[in-house]
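User: For a benchmark we're assembling, each entry needs the component sequences followed by a predicted structure for the full assembly. Here are entry 17's components. Please fill in the structure.
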Amino acid sequence: MTTYILRRILLSIPVLFGILFATFALGRLIPGDPCRAMLGEKATDAVCNEFIQRHGLDKPILVQFGYYVNEIAHGDFGRSFRFSKPVGELLMERLPITVELSMAALLVSIFVGVPLGVISAVRHNSWVDVVTMLWANTGVSMPVFWLGLMLAYIFALALKDTPFQLPPSGRLSPGLITVPFYEIWGLELTPGTTTFTIVDFLSRMNILNGLLSTDFALVKDALVHLILPALALSTIPMALIARMTRSAMLEVLGQDYIRTARAKGLRQRVVVMKHAFSNAQLPLVTVIGLSLGGLLGGAVLTETVFNLSGVGRILYEAITARDYGIVQAFTVVIAIFFVILNLIVDISYAYLDPRIRLE
Amino acid sequence: MSQEVQVIQSLDAEGLALNSVSLWNITWHRLLRRKSAIIGMVILGILIITALTAQWIAPYSPIRSMLDVAGYPVRPEKRQSPCIHAFGCPEDRPQHIMGLDGNARDEFSRILYGTRLSLIVGLSTVSFAIVIGTVLGALGGYFGGWIDNVIMRTMDVLLAFPSLLLAIAIVTVLGPGLQNALLAIGIVSIPAYARVVRASVLSVREMEYVSATRALGGDAIQILFRRILPNALTPLIVQGTLGFATAILDAAALSFLGLGAQPPTPEWGAMLGAERNQVFTAPHLVFLPGIAIALTVLAFNLLGDGLRDALDPRLAHVS
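Assistant: Structure for entry 17:
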């Protein structure tokens, strides 16, 4: 297993370099003066000269790439002129919001999609099956930004003044102040250290922060605000997961050993959950891995619709302001993040199916 | 009894004529047995007809504001809700079955013209990606070695990005606009086709009939195009049909973000994006373009799934 993991990690290094090279090349393809593209039209000549010096822009292209890799390896993503802040700092502030949203959406899609898939396979061709498949087909066809807007309309306007009313935007109700859990715990942390970065990152996820500081009013408020965006974002992966679970289960349920298990007189629940579902998990991991990319892409749209100040929202603002630096940096970071997620998926795949690591 | 069985039986009776049942014939009959595929084809048929006849069936110009229409009886209101005479809208008001948009343009006409654009988006990106993907996949699969390595590792890098984000990054660099958006979506969808073609090439490269062609003096081009690539046709058709769906969704997303089609182009994603802040006051301007996108994407998804089952009977029972 360890050899497999090591080999898998080594294999992703060329891909990481490829990602760096691709984003580097994209940065160089920006028409016009690279300095003004990165620092904005108003940058003065002196500032630009310093910028060119620092990033080696007067050197050969391969050396420039070296500078670029070196900067990213040191977590230096440059400065955003739109937000006048280092991009790295912006990322650490905004990424937790995107992670929280994507995690919530992923959990919703798994916890709804898997049971639906199992039920429709067990009750093949019943009304549950027909409805689930119909919905799965429409689910994958709906633009997530449209779905988000429609959910906002239904739950914030049409259901206004009913118990189902939900807030259409933002992460918390206005006026609610959050205190990072480490301050409540009385931890003395120095900004700039790795521990601080990690703890601060975690504390920016409202739900986690609320749970850790046992502030349940905060947890409830954050959850209420998260429902609609998570629902919108989860629709496509949920549909994919339901469909994949169903077909994997149908395939397994037709096997001889299932008939044997039934013939032994085992209860339906045991046959379905123990004998069939255990063997249908592998394709499930694959489809979850495949949905991750869509989730991250969809997060950009969902955050734009629901005004959540995550990575996606900032990317949208950066695009509008032509802040190429942010777009470039965020693309790199999300791609690296995506590679790591895929690595985890691959490893869990090998964990679930011993045949894979022996190949 | 299903049509397919009938066809095969009737041909059986004629003995030798069995050769003339083409794969397409069988596929077509299988496709007709699936309700979802039929629904997909019907929607698609309607969309194609709409796209072809938009200039005759659209009541107004898609880019002209009602404020500029001479002889317009009443003062048009921006974001006016639908006015349908059959549903009680006063006869003296001009009929706008989907209302007016933020610039007082007829929403219905814009949606109709949008069909045209969506189908063009799908067609152009998918054909671009198929051509490049096929060439790359065939080269890699057939020649192997370092060519294959270089090509497939490049594809891996493209796949390492969440596709919409890569498309966003490309368009940001190239500059917003429909053409650049299409190019970006085309580029990010190349790997899927390259992989499909490469897999098919690898699976038949060492077959006897390929060796036979080689022994008969066939050159690489002939072997590749005449003997090997036809095997990649069915998975490509399925992938391409489903690719239409993704391309249309992604293009709509880019336009929604302001990176794709620019105003006043009647593109569904852009129309939705322009009015997204008005969702509470003029929900029809958000609802209707979204339905149009969803229907189009659904049609391609249903047809693609149907084609996959029809072309690969082994999968028919699972999906």
